[in-house]
Specification:
A hairpin with a 2-residue loop joins strand 11 and strand 12. The protein folds into three domains: 121 residues, no CATH class; 99 residues, D-amino Acid Aminotransferase, Chain A, domain 1 (2-Layer Sandwich), CATH 3.30.470.20; 53 residues, no CATH class. The chain contains six helices and 14 strands. The longest helix has 22 residues. The protein is of the alpha+beta class and 310 residues long.
Length: 310
C-alpha cells in the first residue's frame, strides 16, 4: 500500500488520488489528526483512518510518497509555548522520522536525492554548470560591493511567515536601504521575456510558460495564488533538455519542478523545487501530466513490492 503524507489543503494530492486504486493508498493529512489513529512501537507501526477503518502497517506498506505534510493555518506561539504548538511539533517530528526510516529502507517514492538535500545555495552553485545563473549574494552585516550597482530582487530561503500571516515574496529592492542586521538573499534582476516552469519525472519533462508582463508582481507565485490558471505548454530545445538532465543526474533528484526565466531564447535558472506544486499546470490531466507522475509512483511501488521483505 502507498502511504501519502500531506495536508488537507493540498489540491495536488486531491487530483493525484484519482489515479490510484483507492484500496492501495492511504492519504494522511497531518493537519487533521482527529481523522486518524496511529501506534509506532518496537514491533512496527499501524495507522488507521477513523471513518473508513482503512489501515496501513509494516505488513502492507510498500511506498512512502511525501507531498506537503504541513500546517497551513499559522498560530501565534507565546514565549512560554502552548499545547497546540506542542501537538503539532510532536506529530510533525514523528512523521519526519517515519519518512527517514522509510528512506533508509528504500521505500520512498520519487522525492529524494542522492545527497540528502540540495538547498538554494547548493542548487545555485550546481546550476551554474548547466544554465545561465544571475549573480547572487547571501549576506549579513555588510553590503557586498557588487550590490551597489544594478537592479536586484530580494528572495527568501524559506516559506516562514514574517508576521500577520504574510509570506516573503520576491520583490525588487534598493540594497542600500536594507537593514543589515537581518540576513538577505539578493539576486540580480533578470529582465527576460517569459517565465518557464518544467516538471521533471524520471527523465521525462513537461514544460509550460507565461509572458512576464502577464504577472502583477515580480513573484509569479503571487499571481498564481490569486488567480490560478494553467500555463500554455511550451517546447524545450535539445540543449535545454540535456542541461536539465545533467543537473538532475548530478544532484540525484528523480522528480522536481524547475523555475526559469527565458531571456533572448536562453533559460536562466531560478530554482528547483524538489516537491513543488505541479497539478495546476494540467488539472484535468488533458496533457497527461497527472498520469505521468502517478505512473512513476506506481512503477516504483511495483519495484518495492517485488523486493524481498526487510
Amino acid at each position: 500500500m502507498i502511504f501519502i503524507a500531506t495536508c488537507s489543503q493540498d489540491t495536488t494530492t486531491d487530483i493525484l488520488m484519482k489515479e490510484f486504486d483507492a484500496d492501495n493508498v492511504l492519504r494522511f493529512d497531518i493537519d487533521r489528526p482527529a481523522d486518524f489513529a496511529w501506534d509506532f512501537n518496537a514491533d512496527g507501526f499501524g495507522i488507521s483512518e477513523n471513518t473508513t477503518g482503512k489501515r496501513i502497517d509494516d505488513g502492507t506498506l510498500s511506498s512512502f510518497y511525501i507531498r506537503k505534510p504541513l500546517y497551513t493555518d499559522f498560530i501565534d506561539v507565546p514565549s512560554f509555548g502552548c499545547l497546540e504548538n506542542w501537538r503539532r511539533e510532536e506529530t510533525r517530528e514523528l512523521f519526519r522520522d517515519f519518512f527517514r526510516e522509510c528512506q533508509a529502507r528504500g521505500l520512498v517514492a520519487l522525492v529524494r536525492c542522492k545527497d540528502d538535500k540540495y538547498g538554494k545555495l547548493r542548487q545555485l552553485r550546481a546550476a551554474g554548470k548547466y544554465f545561465h545563473v544571475a549573480p547572487w549574494h547571501f549576506f549579513h552585516g555588510k553590503l557586498p560591493a557588487e550590490l551597489k550597482q544594478g537592479r536586484w530582487v530580494a528572495k527568501s530561503m524559506t516559506a516562514t511567515p514574517i508576521g500577520n500571516d504574510k509570506i516573503f515574496f520576491v520583490k525588487e529592492v534598493d540594497p542600500s536601504v536594507l537593514d543589515l542586521s537581518y540576513p538577505w538573499f539578493l539576486q540580480r534582476l533578470i529582465e527576460g521575456e517569459e517565465e518557464v516552469t518544467v516538471v521533471y519525472v524520471d527523465g521525462k519533462t513537461f514544460a509550460a510558460s507565461a509572458p512576464r508582463d502577464s504577472f502583477d508582481a515580480e513573484d509569479s507565485r503571487k499571481s498564481i495564488f490569486e488567480n490560478p490558471c494553467a500555463w500554455p505548454r511550451c517546447e524545450l530545445s535539445q540543449k535545454d533538455e540535456c542541461a536539465i538532465k545533467g543537473f538532475m543526474d548530478e544532484t540525484g533528484y528523480r522528480f522536481g519542478r524547475f523555475d526559469f526565466i527565458r531571456k533572448d531564447g536562453e533559460l536562466w535558472f531560478l530554482e528547483l523545487n524538489p516537491n513543488g506544486q505541479w497539478a495546476w499546470l494540467d488539472e484535468k490531466n488533458e496533457h497527461g501530466l497527472v498520469s505521468m507522475v502517478a505512473d512513476a509512483i506506481k512503477s516504483e511501488d511495483r519495484v518495492h513490492l517485488a523486493r524481498p521483505s526487510l
